[in-house]
């Protein structure tokens, strides 16, 4: 099946571009919470890129990588929030 | 043929939501409003891409694995948005409010 | 054997069943070795963590075994509302006209898992993010606020979710 105007390659490069755009908020974000929002956004888009590569190449190995990547992105946000939240309480 | 049109439709939805979610994250004034844009728009865009992938690969093991990833993503995405929001709320970041028009003083 | 011991055994069995469901979902195979390994590991994990998974006081039958067919209806409603909400947020991004407020209201749901699901559904739908959940008191940040009155805002935001969740889990 051929997808005429929007092919998987195009979607892949497009998502790479939007990921770069959301890196801007990661760099200029005034507070820590802004940076966490940007990290969340980047994690979701990289997950989409992994799934699209798996669908295009018909390799299901990428899907295992995507699942573990999703879990680790979630745990990373949780760890950052836990660490800085506790620091706030001590002060 | 119909399947191809459906896949194109979902990919198009995903592209629109991805662009406007990123635009919202760039132009909104404070943490909570940025979080609104990122959580709703980007979750919907990634979800649309997953649906398109499931339609494309038909009935195969890849579809089942994408289904598992979709369920996990739908559970984990609002939870992490809520974690960030609660972090900002506990840090006592004051939400941005639209300025009300000034009250005319009687003379 | 008193009632508390019986309740402990039931909790361990229920935790094992939930973990086994997760094992089958993630491994995706039905061979004898896989099933045996899954049973051994999930019963071991359940023996150590049953008190975290199901609390001592949470003994209502409906809060442990949900009605399955309503879960499907709930999921479809959630996906539909997610698309509608995203279009609303998209319009307000394009117009650049927003009116964010913080709203407080209460929920009538009793069990913990139903409250958590309500908070997650609110985070996913019409331009709202749950900031805090204390017992039955929700603090919600609302893009494009129409009202700040507690009860009306609660009725608009919770919508049909609370009715269906009440029928699934009490």
Overview of the structural elements:
The complex is a heterotrimer of chains A (91), B (107) and C (170). Chain A is mainly α. Helices cover 85% and strands 0% of the residues of chain A. Chain B has one domain (2-90). Chain B has helices at 2-27, 31-57, 61-90. The radius of gyration of chain B is 20 Å and the shape is elongated. Chain C is mostly helical and 170 residues long. Chain C contains seven helices and three strands, in the order ααααβαββαα. A three-stranded antiparallel beta sheet of chain C has the order 1-3-2, with helices on one face.
List its salient traits.
heterotrimer, A: 91 residues, 3 helices, flat, C: 170 residues, mainly alpha, 2 domains, three-stranded antiparallel beta sheet, 7 helices, 3 strands, 65% helix, elongated
Helical element count of chain A? Answer: 3
Number of strands of chain C: 3
Element order of chain C: H for helix, E for strand: HHHHEHEEHH
What is the structural class of chain C? mainly alpha
How would you characterize the largest beta sheet of chain A?
A: none
* Low-confidence segments of chain C: none
Q: Largest beta sheet of chain C: what is the strand line-up?
A: 1-3-2
Runs of chain A in which pLDDT lies below 50 for 5 or more consecutive residues are: none
Helix content of chain A: over 70%
List the helices and strands and how they pair.
The complex is a heterotrimer of chains A (91), B (107) and C (170).
Chain A: H1 8-28, H2 32-57, H3 61-90
Helix pairs in contact in A: 1-2, 2-3
Chain B: H1 2-27, H2 31-57, H3 61-90
Chain C: H1 3-27, H2 32-53, H3 61-64, H4 68-95, E1 101-106, H5 112-124, E2 128-134, E3 137-142, H6 150-158, H7 161-169
Antiparallel strand pairs in C: 1-3, 2-3
Helix pairs in contact in C: 1-2, 4-7, 5-7
Overview in brief:
Chain A is mainly alpha-helical and 91 residues long. Chain A has helices at 8-28, 32-57, 61-90. Chain B is built from 3 helices and no strands.
């Amino acid at each position: 099946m051929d997808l005429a105007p929007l092919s998987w390659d195009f979607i892949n490069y497009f998502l790479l571009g939007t990921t770069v755009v959301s890196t801007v908020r990661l760099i200029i974000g005034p507070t820590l919470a802004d940076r966490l929002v940007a990290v969340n956004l980047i994690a979701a888009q990289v997950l989409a890129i992994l799934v699209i590569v798996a669908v295009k190449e018909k390799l299901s190995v990428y899907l295992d990588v995507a699942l573990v990547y999703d879990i680790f992105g979630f745990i990373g946000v949780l760890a950052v929030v836990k660490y800085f939240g506790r620091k706030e309480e001590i002060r | 043929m119909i399947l191809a049109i459906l896949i194109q439709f979902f990919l198009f939805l995903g592209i629109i939501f991805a662009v406007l979610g990123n635009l919202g994250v760039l132009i909104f004034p404070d943490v909570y409003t940025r979080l609104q844009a990122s959580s709703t728009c980007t979750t919907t865009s990634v979800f649309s891409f997953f649906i398109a992938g499931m339609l494309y690969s038909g009935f195969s093991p890849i579809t089942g694995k994408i289904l598992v990833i979709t369920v996990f993503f739908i559970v984990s995405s609002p939870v992490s948005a809520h974690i960030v929001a609660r972090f900002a709320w506990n840090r006592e970041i004051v939400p941005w409010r639209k300025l009300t028009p000034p009250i005319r003083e009687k003379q | 054997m008193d009632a508390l011991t019986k309740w402990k055994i039931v909790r361990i069995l229920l935790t094992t069943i939930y973990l086994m469901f997760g094992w089958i979902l993630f491994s995706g195979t039905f061979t004898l070795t896989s099933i045996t390994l899954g049973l051994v590991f999930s019963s071991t994990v359940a023996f150590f963590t049953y008190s975290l998974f199901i609390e001592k006081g949470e003994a209502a039958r409906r809060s442990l075994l949900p009605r399955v067919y309503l879960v499907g209806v709930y999921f479809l409603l959630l996906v539909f509302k997610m698309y509608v909400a995203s279009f609303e947020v998209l319009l307000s991004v394009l117009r650049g006209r927003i009116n964010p407020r913080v709203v407080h209201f209460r929920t009538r749901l009793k069990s913990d898992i139903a409250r958590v699901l309500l908070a997650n559904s609110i985070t996913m739908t019409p331009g709202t993010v749950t900031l805090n959940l204390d017992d039955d008191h929700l603090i919600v940040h609302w893009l494009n606020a129409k009202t700040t009155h507690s009860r009306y805002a609660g009725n608009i935001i919770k919508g049909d979710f609370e009715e269906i969740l009440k029928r699934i889990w009490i």
